[in-house]
Specification:
Distance between the termini: 13 Å
CATH architecture of the largest domain: 3-Layer(aba) Sandwich
Largest sheet: 7 strands, parallel
Strand content: 5-15%
Strand order of the largest sheet: 3-2-1-4-5-6-7
Helix content: 25-40%
Structural class: alpha/beta
Number of domains: 2
Radius of gyration: 22 Å
Order of helices and strands: EHHEHEHHHEHEHHHEEEHEEHEHEHEHHH
CATH topology of the largest domain: Rossmann fold
């Protein structure tokens, strides 16, 4: 069958779909990945076919909305759902619909590609609603592929409950305008599957999942992929001291912000280097104030699937990609969650499973971070629990095992 992926134009959204695209291609299916021209590099470097769209539309600012809250219509806003009640769900749902609206310029190109190429299955990023419209027009089955918690489905269902309880017209649904702009040009009427897919592929542990009873989820084991790279010589040998990864990639959504008010990278590194560990930090070597202690390896970039197998711990901010990669390798995690999407949710799950420890960012300074890491490394129960979590996640179907499921669901949902 023909499978068309539609990906939000950001590397952190592109890389998680690569293993599933490989699995489909290896099973003999024809695969193409649609994304912005600036985001085709990771696709083609992975040996997959990229279809650039939106070349005349500048989506770079939208792709960087993680660092530009003004694009969400609210200074300092985030899209996180930290708990099942989430008292500020209303503003967050509004900001979410603004992200949907930002993808509107891709509608015409996406629908044109789908109608001409006639995919059997369209797999789309939760932000890329034009892909669902394209699937409907081409007759393809379609499903979302998550890269984190399903905040979209939870916020949508919370908004529907509110609308059902509210007096008529007391609160306009911000999704209505977005969907009207997407559907009216083609004479389509709104259905929930155009927002939530006919089904949803979820690569996170089921225990992380938010309640969304109206969504059909298909679990898939997270396949760690963060690009290729040369393996440095020092990774061939077992470390003499416990190896610790500090995920500090300041330019990526999976990054660890500087813990503690005013703490610089060099101060954090100096504090952690006081421990008897081999510290590997993915910070920017050229960053101001990033003086590196002699026992620290400061790297511009290193794929986590190369580094994590030899690590005794990882320190990060709770982003789903880093959390999932560490969990898949059984690495104990020290998390300083900074709410944007699902950081608090993954941190809470990790702590509940006793496979790591969580620090309050507001109270975290270099000394606190160092002491917490020391305690984590000494706690053999956490190391054992991290191994248990790894073994549990290994039982989930991997991308290749999901292919027959997708074939069956496509035959059920495809409109010939």
């Amino acid at each position: 069958m023909r499978v068309l992926f539609a990906v939000f134009p950001a590397t952190s959204h592109t890389l998680p779909v690569i293993p599933l695209a490989w699995a489909l291609q290896n099973a003999g299916h024809e695969v193409r990945i649609v994304t912005h021209p600036d985001s085709t590099g990771p696709v083609t470097r992975a040996g997959l076919a990229a279809v650039p769209v939106g070349g005349s539309t500048d989506l770079r600012e939208l792709a960087d909305f993680r660092h530009n809250p003004a694009l969400l219509g609210h200074a300092g806003g985030d899209l996180s759902v930290a708990s099942p009640d989430c008292p500020d769900w209303g503003p967050k749902w509004f900001r979410m619909t603004r992200v949907f609206a930002g993808m509107r310029p891709l509608l015409e190109e996406l629908t044109g590609i789908a109608v001409r190429w006639r995919p059997d299955l369209v797999l789309w990023d939760p932000f890329c609603l034009p892909a669902a419209v394209a699937a409907r027009l081409s007759g393809a089955a379609h499903a979302r592929v998550l890269w984190g918690r399903d905040n979209v489905a939870w916020l949508r269902q919370r908004s529907l409950r509110y609308l059902a309880q509210a007096q008529g017209g007391s609160w306009p649904d911000p999704l209505e305008e977005v969907m009207q702009q997407l559907l009216e040009p083609y004479g389509l009427t709104y259905e929930e599957e155009l927002l939530l897919g006919q089904w949803t592929i979820d690569p996170l542990p089921p225990g992380v999942r938010l309640p969304a009873p109206d969504v059909r989820y298909e679990s898939m084991r997270w396949a760690t992929y963060s690009g290729g790279g040369r393996v440095p010589d020092w990774l061939h040998s077992k470390p003499v001291r416990p190896r610790v990864c500090l995920a500090w990639e300041s330019g990526e959504p999976g990054a660890l912000p500087q813990p503690g008010a005013g703490a610089s990278l060099s101060e954090v590194l100096a504090s952690l280097a006081e421990l008897d560990v081999e510290l590997v930090s993915t910070g920017d070597p050229a960053a101001p104030g990033s003086d590196v202690p002699g026992r620290v390896r400061l790297l511009d970039r290193l794929p986590l699937n190369q580094l994590l197998p030899g690590c005794s711990a990882i320190v990060h901010r709770g982003g789903s990609a880093v959390f999932s990669a560490a969990a898949a390798h059984g690495v104990p995690q020290l998390v300083v969650p900074t709410p944007f999407w699902d950081e608090e949710g993954t941190a809470g799950y990790l702590e509940h499973r006793n496979a790591g420890r969580v620090l309050d960012r507001a109270r975290c300074d270099p000394t606190t971070l160092r002491d917490a890491l020391s305690a984590l490394l000494a706690d053999h129960r956490i190391h054992q629990r991290a191994g248990f979590l790894r073994d549990e996640l290994a039982l989930l179907p991997g991308p290749s095992e999901l292919v027959p499921v997708l074939e069956r669901l496509t035959s059920l949902h495809q409109r010939i």
